[in-house]
Amino acid sequence: EKGRILAPFLGTFFGDALESGEIRLEYGGEGFSINYYDLSFPLRLDSYVNVLTRVLEKIRSVMGREHPDFIKLLGIFYVLKNLPAAYEKDETFDQARFIKRMLWELYSKNPAIRESLDQCLAEINGARGDAASFNSLDGLLKEQFYKLSFWKVAAEEINYRRFFNINGLITLRAEEEDVFTHTHRLIVELVRSLGIDGLRIDHVDGLYDPLEYLKRLKERTGDIHVIVEKVLAWNEDLRSDWPVDGSTGYDFLNALNGLFCSPANEARFAKIYSNFTRLKIPYEELLYQKKKLIIEMDMTGDVGNLAELLRRTLINDRHGCDITLPGLKRAMTEVMSVLPVYRTYVSRGAYSESDRLCVKGAVWAAARRNPAFLNEIRFLEKVLTLEYAHYFTEKEKDEWLHFVMKFQQLTGPLMAKGLEDTLLYVYNRLISLNEVGGNPGKFGNSVDEFHSFNAKRAHGSMNATSTHDTKRGEDARMRINVLSEMPDEWAAGIRRWSALARQMKKPVDGRPAPDKNDEYFLYQTLIGAMPFTDEEYGPFVERIKDYAVKAVREAKIHTAWLKPDVEYEEAFVSFIDSLLKKTGDNPFLEDFMPFQKKVAWYGMLNSLSQVVLKIASPGIPDFFQGTELWDLNLVDPDNRRPVDFNKRSAMLEGIKQRRAHSSAGLLPELLSSYGDGRIKLFLIHTALGVRTEHHDVFDAGRYAPVEARGAKMAHIVAFARVGREDAVLTVAPRLLTSIIDEGQLPVNDVWADTELVIPDHFKNMVWRNEITGEVIENGKSILIRAALRDFPVALMSGKLR
């Protein structure tokens, strides 16, 4: 209804909630309120008059016309009745608060007033079984500024901005000066009083004008380190005009992760996936479908609001006045669904060429898919690219710009829900690539691509490998990547496991559950998340069952959060129980576990490479809680379980003491007991110590890729961080299944004649391996077997001559 904000918080239809007595008018120290379970909505002040009118005569008859409290109550009534229409504004706020306080005082101290008002409320709230008794409450609700409704109504009729599709998280208009000032007052005070030197801005894409917001924040907080949570596409750069020091690092996570996925096997892996699941929809097409699904399920109302906004601006436009509202909605839906990035950043005085090309590309793709709506789509292109007609007034131009900026606010959450919270649980070709900020359609990346990425990376950005939002832990991801190196073994394995597990499935709607795609997803998940020790196995099985339910609901194929299919979910959970039971004979586990342990060995080596590459690359290494040891967690809430920091502290102290007294034998011991995670903790501690000792190199040093040469050069990533007088050289192996056996370390003679080509200004330098303590002298090259003589990765420091 016009002029009322939708309040879609009811668990059932409005009429049912009303007549069951779930919606009630109540009174307390803050005044009258409409309550629905634990939700409370203030009653409009005008409605106080209607309530008091019902009770005044009864109170007068009990107390008498001359009673002081009745006179006070009558005075309150007439003040309320004659409040100016603008009483909601600030200038009358104190007056309204005073009236409420006076009324509460009378209610609290006078039994007659309290009894009469309570009886009045009981009458208004109606009696179950008597539908007519709820007419008064129904009429009262129609007077409010809000309209209570069934929560599902929000998908089509929402008339305010939400955080994604969460109805209760109503967004603030941070672009308004007074809103910004009020909501950031505490932050600014803390920065100034406590000397806080860094701020992280999450969900920056949800802002109306991110550039203006960040400028305003910088003005208030001064020269402070600011990073933004910004999901960047592979070929997308952080906005150069933003006054920030970098991003939270999803781009780094995916650039680094891609190093451990073998691009050479993409075609083979795609065939294995499609043969097993019978799914052949290309990634880009699937993303388009899922974004459209989210619009239909959750955002029809949001798109409708935007279309209404644009339609109002077209009344006086001779080229747009014939475009219908349904046509606008369809055009917007199509363009949003093919937009390749989370959002563009058009604002007053700012329209980059990259944004313009992005919009035009999306319009072309939408028009190609929907030629019947070519006129609507082409007109939307004019609006989105601000191609104003010569006769436009400044007001009309402002209206177009306002629409574009509101349009941009919606494409971000649409991409997040369509990609992160739907497609990443559906497109399961290799789920280690299914990450926030990732592109599952890009099957790995080369060493040269990684170097190019690092070379342009901001030193103030975070180097993340796990966060609160990642779909699986960093070390689970490293394990699953190993599968990309062994497609034939993987294909043979899933055929055997599926045959062994066939009898464990239950029919749902005439078909075995889980389906092949969910089964394929599960096998990869088990390979990635399986614990190292038997003590963790029992809790692991329960975690996997919980995770499976979350995953299939996010996929929105057989079940969903909005409409769970309990039968399918229970069948999947039962399948997992049978698959993972350790009691009695279990042919599946007998076949699966040797393969899983083999993958885990190579995954462990990948993880050690990941640690040194993260710490040594340009940027600030970021460690999510608990990742000091193996991170085999799954998505939230699994990755937010309590972390045993005392255990980690004790482990680190033991490593430091052992190293201080006698380090002989420490590395072989840590490597032989790699399952406890101490080897990872040792490497993190050591590498961070190198960063501290050579902080100038890592803070401002030049990034220099170092070329590998020889038969196994494709298996080495190497680069130097170069300062004025010193340098740090990083050497890390990758894609190891073809050069070492399970249980073998990639050290010493494994590398044969493979070497690093040392630039001229590094020649004759003496290097110290900071992990092993070995000293290496080089001429024109360094043999990998010397750099990796006793340990799988190297971090070497040297002085320039």
What portion of the residues fall into strands of 2 or more residues? 5-15%
Structural class call reads alpha+beta
* Terminal CA distance: 77 Å
Strand order of the largest sheet: 15-17-18-23-20-21
- How helical, in percent, are the residues? 40-55%
Number of strands: 23
Shape: globular
Mean pLDDT: 92
Please outline the major beta sheet: 6 strands, antiparallel
Number of helices: 28
Low-confidence stretches: none
Rg (CA only): 32 Å
Main features:
801 residues, alpha+beta, 6-stranded antiparallel sheet, 3-stranded antiparallel sheet, 28 helices, 49% helix, 12% strand, globular
Summarize the structure.
With 801 residues, the protein is α+β, with helices and mostly antiparallel strands.
